[in-house]
Amino acid sequence: MPQYGVAANAELARFASTAEQLGADSLWVGDRLLAAVAPSVGYAGKDTIPEQFRTGIDPFIALAVAATATTRVRLGASVFVAPWYPPVQLARQLTSLDVISGGRLLPGFGIGWSPEEYQAAGAPFRRRGAQLDELLDALDRLWTTNPVAHQGERWSIPESWVNLKPVQQPRPPIYLGAFTPAGLKRVGERADGWTGVVQVPGGVSIDMLDWQRQAIDAAATAAGRDPSAIHTYVRINVAEGAPVEQVAEAVQALAANGYPDAFVDLLYVATTTDAHLDWVERLLTR
């Protein structure tokens, strides 16, 4: 979804409905809170943050717009920065999205990278992985039990009735974005899906994806889970100026090597809705 920079405007509904009509199978949002003037940690291994992140539409609102403008596409997040959100409020937002979309939500979670965003969200930056684990525990209870109760290190939920439940049963599939050993192990142990990442140009490494996927499968097997039940979406991050044809080749290469489901980050490819849709149409046609 054109969620950031000058492309973040009132035409999200038109983008979503047109992309669906053009043949897209899923639409995705990201989760950026703010762009620090002097970041202690930059974006994607750099020491800066893209100017586009200074303007961003809320991901929950963007998904709600997409849900009401479409009828078929799945609605994904890559990724919600889980520790920013109290689990009860997060579950209410996600459950509402699953209900109004008729069960099309693909919630993805991660732990982020910006200490300044954590500070602004009032969340501790340390032990982010442990916070993610606790949040997933609480979400599972909120989605699958009633009454609901949770007592954890950071959050507690007094025994309460929560009648609104997701359309998808027993709950929406949980995707995790991960590339570190600890993160990949968590995917194998408890996730329904994984969002791997490649770069265009020059970063479509099937060997790296396979290595990461093997780590996930090993963790799943050790936890007594079926690795084949863990789905993969590959996120394709597109550099400014990369041609559509190069992205199409990446999609085709991924599909030919066992990764048929991919989505494309449009952050740098266009600045208007019409230009975004032209780019989408050329990619899907190819």
Automatic annotation (TrEMBL):
Residues 8-258 form the Luciferase-like domain. One of its GO terms (molecular function) is alkanesulfonate monooxygenase activity. The keyword Flavoprotein applies. The keyword Oxidoreductase applies. It comes from the Bacteria. InterPro entries: Lucif-like_OxRdtase_Rv2161c (IPR019921), Luciferase-like_dom (IPR011251), Luciferase-like_sf (IPR036661), SsuD_RutA_monooxygenase (IPR050172). One of its GO terms (biological process) is alkanesulfonate catabolic process. Pfam families: Bac_luciferase (PF00296). Keywords: Flavoprotein, FMN, Monooxygenase, Oxidoreductase. This is Putative F420-dependent oxidoreductase, Rv2161c family. It comes from Mycolicibacterium rhodesiae (strain NBB3) (Mycobacterium rhodesiae). The lineage of its organism: Bacteria, Bacillati, Actinomycetota, Actinomycetes, Mycobacteriales.
